[in-house]
Design goal:
single chain, alpha/beta, five-stranded mixed β-barrel, 9 strands, binds hypoxanthine
């Protein structure tokens, strides 16, 4: 059997031994949103360290566990703390949790992240509906022997972020009086923030936000047929766009400042999706 698939199935079995919960919607929570998972109706939690073969996240401030439960009666699985490529894991491990949530039954995936704004119309604290992405700065998570059990060798990527879900996000936000931006997310490897030249490159290519996660997860999920959407919290203007130097504290502060609204929005979206 394909080694990547074998590892994935080991993780699936490890979880299935403990819980037979059937999630409909999977969520991956980015910076500042982590404690959303603590606020839902929790049925069960599983720490990443308890799952055989699972890549365990090392970033301070990121909890590492799956939370199974309900958001307004919608069964969800939440990844509280994601796995980043910059932590040193191979891409197949970075997207393993995404695939795992798909294998557990989640047909829909909501991705969130903190990102730098590359678009001069954006300001810190804005939310951006991801309508497409650019991944040329990272290796594809689909490189390697194809996992035929999940999807085809040459998957179409013309609508990674579901139009239907994007409309639901837009309508939900509008009803809640939350202004949404919309744009293209460009993933870099991190962990360093981009240089001003890289941010100009992103903008020249049509990127509106830059970050270190999400697009690879979206690709893996789309490959296996999940319906995907994503929202970036623009925590800062990307490097070179202001006189400020970037630091993680500023990113965290902005994310924390808008977290309450972001969480309300996520609840609205899960309910309507
Ligand atoms: N670049 C990359 N990732 C980020 C940024 C950024 O400016 N802000 C928050 N996450």
């Amino acid at each position: 059997m394909n080694k990547v698939y074998e590892k994935l199935m080991t993780c699936v079995e490890s979880i299935r031994k403990r819980i037979d919960f059937q999630p409909e919607v999977a969520l991956i929570l980015g910076s500042g949103l982590g404690d959303y998972a603590d606020e839902i109706q929790i049925e069960q939690t599983i720490n990443y360290t308890e799952i055989e073969g699972f890549p365990t996240s090392t970033v301070a401030g990121h909890k590492g566990r799956f939370v199974f439960g309900y958001v307004n009666e919608v069964p969800v699985v939440i990844m509280q703390g994601r796995v980043h490529f910059y932590e040193g894991y191979p891409m197949s491990d970075v997207v393993l949790p995404t695939r795992l949530m798909g294998m557990l039954g989640a047909k829909k995936l909501i991705l969130t992240n903190a990102a730098g704004g590359a678009n001069f119309d954006f300001k810190p604290g804005d939310f951006m509906i991801i309508n497409d992405h650019i991944t040329i700065a990272i290796p594809s998570p689909l490189i390697g022997e194809n996992i035929d059990e999940l999807g085809v060798r040459f998957p179409d990527m013309s609508e990674v972020y579901s139009q239907r879900m994007r409309k639901i996000i837009k309508d939900t936000a509008e009803k809640m009086g939350i202004k949404m931006q919309e744009g293209v997310y460009m993933q870099f490897t991190g962990p360093a923030y981009e240089t001003p030249a890289e941010v100009r490159l992103a903008r020249t290519l049509g990127g509106d936000a830059v970050g270190m996660s999400t697009a690879c997860e979206a690709m893996a999920a789309h490959h296996m047929g999940m319906e995907v959407c994503g929202i970036s919290c623009i925590t800062n203007l990307a490097a070179g766009m202001s006189t400020e130097k970037l630091d993680h504290k500023e990113v965290q502060e902005t994310a924390d400042r808008v977290a309450k609204q972001f969480k309300e929005l996520i609840t609205g979206i899960v309910t309507n999706i």
